[in-house]
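Justification of resources, computational component.

The compute hours requested in this renewal are based largely on the per-chain cost of generating structure records like the one below. Each record pairs the submitted sequence with a full structure-token output. That output is archived, and it is also reused by downstream analysis tasks.
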Amino acid sequence: MTDLSKRKFLRSAGIGAAGVAAATTLATPALSQNKVQMRFVTTFPKMFPGLGTSARRLTDRINLATDGRVEVKLYDRGALVPGGVGVFDAVAAGNADMYYSSEYYHPSKSQAYNIYGAVPFGMTTPEVYAWLQYGGGQELWDELHAGFNMKPFAGPSTGVQMGGWFNKPIKSLDDMRGVKFRMPGIGGEVLRSVGVAVVNLPGSEVFAALQSGAIDGAEWVGPWHDLAFGFHKVVKHYHWPGFHEPGNIGSYGINLDFWKTVSDADKQIITGLMEAECHVQTAEYNGASPPALDKLLTEHGVQLHQYPDEVLLELAKASRDVMENLAAGDEMTGRVWESYKAFRKQSMVWSKLGIQGFLNAREMTEEALKG
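The structure output for this chain reads:
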């Protein structure tokens, strides 16, 4: 067809140069030769053990399981989106298609997101997953995320965290007042309310801050990562339990416009693989923490300290007040908190009889049968 013939064809079809440009612009960029390209961003460096390797594993499995129909490109922290917490805005705006993060990094969007990260004295990992799937938590999360043009999915969990490292044992609440301590999220607000000088630092800066004396203590995740970060080289007093994050779960967020371009079959594959990753990475933390803890205690002279009951009681009172004030701030946060709180109350009855009852029996019989 000659250039003249082409121009006549376009005019007869009612399409000018501007129309051709518009049609090209409106074509879905994620679609190419019946393939969907997914830009996957994460809060965590992709070489970081656990949190980072999880995103890489999920990427590889989606690419393989969809036989290339969904082509996932995982961007390292900061490569496509500046910093780590900007992944939420990037996916909401369509500048990326999917993120892996933790919802408590996004309280500026809604305080309700704190509840989908970790709640002090809240639910354990199995209880949180149960609330999401069978207690109404997912439906509320869907509603919350839809306001940002995204669909949320539960991510893996790091499990119950430790209570943190201090340069001296904590024997009373007075020992904590004025202490410069690193803790983010609602847990940090709780400590601040009882007089702790809370400092927010990214994990990569914690060791240097402890070493220089800029902070007196810190929490990070648990034995696996704490050992890798070398906190034991600076401080020796390791406290438990981690009241602030009993069941911290990660989160995936997928742009709704992008999600519509994925076939129903591949939606099921991707969803199933995310659910599988919840099991795999959670098991990885439970598998790596016991030997790491043993190494801290037997090879590095770390001393374990259980928080006194009176300290835990005061922290629990402060946690209740912080959460109730948070829930009173807006209608959506209040609804999520009421749902979470009701499910926690029910779960505590069964967990006490089932899980805690068995653990108590196991510990008692183990001690009795020693020797």
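Residues 331-368 form the longest helix (38 residues). Confidence is low (pLDDT under 50) at residues 1-31.
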